[in-house]
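Q: What does the assembled structure look like for these inputs?
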Amino acid sequence: MMKKIRYSEIIEWALFCASVLAVLVFIVWPVAAVLRESIIVDGTFSIQLLARVVPANSRLFVNSLFSAGAATLLAVLVALPVALYERYSRFRFKKLVSPLLLITMISPPFVSSLAYIVLFGKRGLVTYGLLGLKLDPYGWQGVVLMQALGEISFAALVLIAALRVMDFRLLQASRDLGASVNSTIGRVVLPLLIPGIGAAGFLCLIKSLADFGTPMVIGGNFSTLATEAYMAVIAKGDLGSSAVLSIMLFVPAAIALFVYRKTGGRSTQPGIGSAGFPVSETPLELRGWLGGMCFAITILFALVMLAQFITIVLAALTVYNGSGYEFTGEYFRALSLDRWLCVLRSVWYAVVAGICASVIGVYLAYYIERRNICCKSALSFAVSLPYIIPGTLFGIGYVLAFNKAPLDITGTTFIVIVNCIFRSLTVGEQTGAAALINVSRDLENAALDLGASRLRVLVDIVAPLLKNAVAVSFVNTFTATMMSVGAIIFIISPASKVATVELFDLLNSGNYNDAAVLAVILTLITIVVNIAGLKFLGSKG
Amino acid sequence: MYLALENIAYSYGKKPVLTDVSLDVAKGEFVTLLGPSGCGKTTLLKIIGGFIEQQQGVVRLEGLDITSLAPERRPVATVFQNYALFPHMTVQENVGYGLKFRKDYSKTSARAQIAAALALVGMSDFRDRNVVKLSGGQQQRVALARALILQPKVLLLDEPFSNLDAKLRVAIRAELKAIQQQLGLTMVFVTHDQEEALSLSDRVAVMNGGRILQTAAAKMIYQQPTDGFVADFVGRVNRITTEGQTRLVRPEDVFPVATGGLQGVVSAKQYMGAYSIYFVQTVNGGMVQMDVRNCDDNDWAVGEQLNLAIRE
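A:
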């Protein structure tokens, strides 16, 4: 019997092929372009460029590795007690920890650096204003501290998610067998948490490695590979060197990923898409020195975050009049139309990128998880790439891949939006994959059995059941895009400048009060969208 | 034959799941695939439903080869183990879902058909309910109505009662049998519960290790198992060796006699309500189980001597 081809099958395949093509063009090709740039000189294979750039920057490589490693270690060391406190404390205060982490995670890049300069800089409120000191705050110590501060919230949320899905019966069994709370944490909780710690650490490491902004703002003479790659593109227009530098950045990240996967990391991407499991009864209550320590670190972290927040708000709202500080609205009033346009553009890009990345990501998750498609693991790897490569590499890839025919889109709004979409695609895919665990395959089989075509199954059954996953992913990708600076700074033209890039420029030119205003506005908008998103999800149970 | 499975083989990777399975089902017949978990019975059902394609063999329905027909085009319907009700649809949306893909679909006739299907399973009052909020038994009925409304040529049921408590299971079992007989449905039913298989089916196919060991009427399967595994799986059985010959004897076919027979000592007894099981250690070394109806005049204590005979 001949198999009849139906329209629904054609539509379905056209949709799928289009999204795979998009992944190839906007993820694989730019990454390949970076590799190509570094090993092909004048059309032939050559290691000339590598041989020139790699040894010349070995010092920076060590700097990057050292500062990112130290920042990661510090972030995880603080995040772990915070997470334990959030899950296992006896006190009511713990209910505030998650909201605190969520809010502090929604902070524009360099906010810690900004607060640091305002408080401890050459004209710092504390060092100069209160103590009358003139200290030089610039150096690697500040970089490590600020990068760590920026990552603690995220790392703690990853660890909390991992603790939440831990089978609480194991902990009850441990107690039942005579282990104290502290030994249960040491012998059961921590070993089970190793993949979570690995995931959190890995993601912190990648972000810190790729962070060129913090060293530029407060590093002083301390420079890293990421700053050098940034300078190579922006100041010197040397794409070849920047390509090699960003590959050098990726090497430690790739090694870390390899180690993480080998040592019990799951097949999913580290750290995302694991939220939303039912919260079970609390099997442990922190006590003793461990409880005290977790509490102290959590409180300290909360106070630092509060200080940071107050500093930014004060910087945005006060002026120094010679003898003291007084409130002023002048910085807000001085917001130029250009700067407002940057904010609007940020919102607009984040909305578009959030919707597209979530819909395409969840859609691809369905194909990767549920359908027998060829090259499934290759597709899955391609989708995960934007999350595991440093933003610098992704941005430089876009510069290299799209500055000539057939896709000469450099300088357009389109390239910026596309970059934002595909940078966040991994989040959408992972959220979708996590949601699919709760969608039984038999639901699809039942619909097929009742006569629905594959396309109808997608529209009638899968799409409605994954709606929430799309919404969750939207909130996350919106936030990420609002706050991102790493990849897009390379491809932005004056006509497509976004608020974070403006913020970065203001910081670099020393306009700290204007930068603070922008940071406050960005934070407020993003928090509003997050709360609206949570309300929307909450109203649907 | 109405539904014919011919020499079906299926392996998952290198591991064979089904080996040379053949089965015929007549029109209006209720056939059960019975076996322990991992025996391949659910895989076989999925092959009939079209969710899995076998590597070898043919599935025929009314003489036509439907092997390469996609599930949405097969005139069979499945009641899934966990019901697979669409959680974002109401009861009637679930039940009416399959009608939408009929060429002659009309809203008025769909409404009437949904009403009839719900009436058949006794769920008329629940049409606008959210399926998630229904009890297990109610969900079961909705799943059945959703499959029946398409008037499938074969209805497939994958352990449909496994999530119900014992009492409800017995009640729904009777309802299912009544509906099957009323509509003259052809059914293939998968279960690992031998009582369910024996009480419902016209014929039972006992499976193990990816093969069908015996296909026969329930009574035959129980009384004349062709295989030790079949005998064990559908009930308790004694292996009694007398005069060099080993026989398979059901515990209810063993009874005490005053003299003669097989001598033994009661080593344990279990009270089961309507009957008791006596574990008798016989002189030739074997342990024999004997079921005895609980009446006052036949109660033996542990340690008592008994002479056992076998009912022919």
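The CA atoms of residues 395 and 487 of chain A lie 4 Å apart.
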